[in-house]
Amino acid sequence: MQGDTITGVVDLGDALVGAYVQDLAITLSYALQQIGVDPARAGVIVSAYDARRALTPDEQRVLPTLIAARHATSLCIAAERFGLNPEHATWFSHMEPTLRAIQMVQGYSPRDLEDALCQGCQRRRQRGRCVDDLRAKRQRLGPSLSLSYDEPLHIVEGRDQYLLDADGRVYLDLVNNVCHVGHCNARVVEAIATQAAMLNTNTRYLHETVLEYADRLTAKMPAPLDTCFFVNSGSEANELALRLARAATEHTDVVVIDGAYHGSTGNCIAMSPYKFNGPGGRGQADWVHSAPMPDVYRGELRDTDAGLGYALEVGRVIGEATNKGRSIAGFFAETLLSCGGQIPLPSGYLAGAFEHVRAAGGLCIADEVQVGLGRVGDAMWGFELQGVVPDIVVLGKPMGNGHPIGAVVTTRAIAEAFANGMEFFSTFGGNPVSASAALAVLDVVEEDGLQSRATRLGDRFMDGLRALQSRYSIIGDVRGRGLFLGVELVRDRTTLEPAATEAAMLVNNMKARGILLSTDGPLHNVIKIKPPLVLNEGDVDRSLRTLDEVLGLMCED
Ligand code: PMP
Fold first, then answer.
1. Does ligand 1 have an atom closer than 6 angstroms to the CB of 238?
2. Strand 406-411 relative to strand 392-395, pairing
3. Mean pLDDT score, 242-248
4. Is the N or C terminus of the chain more exposed, i.e. has fewer CB atoms within 10 Å?
């Protein structure tokens, strides 16, 4: 102002308080409108900015969204101006480059876009180094322990059905069946913390919690399964089941199902064709006999009577063993096959097989480590779906929601036959903290109706997967029960040539989109789905949409 004369105007109309990263996003949105500038080239701007002011992981993550928002705003402004005066070309001259930029950016997932833009950022490089450091340090855990995924995950937090990695990325966990009632479930955490702050001893003292849990657990089992042994893992539980069966029958041998895994101890490896026939395996021990997998998709018997047919196979295997003078102590069977490839047993299978086993004087052992505790929805235990009562039930994984506890539930008569004077004791098995965790898990399963939730969401998943199967010939079979599902990928629906490479690719592509899955089955071509039971409808729909997107990309010509 000079006197009353205005000599200039300061326009503060665009001055707003906002996040710094918005400036960068707007610059990038314009850069991407230039012909020949793709996200990797625009990354030069990000690197230069980052060199002066390092971008936080959160800022890096929001860049794609902010760029999309800027493009959308620009386009809307241009369209509105065009409507007001189509003659005034300079008003909306940015319409075409904006559209072009939107189309180009649409070819990237938000995560890929972030990667392309931020590849030169300091903190990203540091994080890369952190993963490399952890991998190097992990050598100390020995070379036989593998890592999941091509690019391993560094998970730092879990909540319900989600996992958070060190970069702050959230993953939907469709594959961990241990955290049954959700990662870090508040009630389980509280039960563990409260009891740990009070007392943790062992089962040689009287304590209410383990007894209450034993009551609650056996109340969920049919008679005469009324006696519990507590251990620390599924392997220990199967190992103990073997001892019980041998003690009660005075026989030695076992029958197992091909492709099965029952645990990591010496005897469990010997009872796991998945291991003894796999890499580094030493083949079948003389006291172990394998029956074919009752697989109605890929196995020899595929008709409606297949259950009985496969049960006859168990009878045949037992006959061959007894003809050689062997005696059968037990038949170990998962009640839906997990490592075998997420295979539900055909109807009549266990009833028939159990008859043969019992006729040979053996016991029937149901390994419910993966599928028990309501996962199959319609029943608490997988064996109930087959209408049978085993002599011994083996439990593990979901019991403590991640806290180590396993159990063997059996009849009083078998427990008495085992009590030959030698004491059974497990230092940690059934301790007050583990028992509190397990009790809290049971409470949540019951009070939050997780069994019916498993049915509802499992059916929704299954319907969606079947719809995908009708559109993608690579999906040969969709199967399972409740939230224990399998999708078998094949290159040819007639020859059933397994699509193992494609299955691995699908799993890695889903992971890149924030959804965790993994493969299973002897041919490594089955996608397994066994999430925490707290999954919701939105998670299922998103998983199906993302599967559709990934299959669409993988299967296009
Ligand atoms: N049985 C089955 C069916 C399993 O899947 C597993 C573990 N994957 C085990 C037993 C052994 O359990 P753990 O690893 O707790 O010893």
1. yes
2. antiparallel
3. 98
4. C
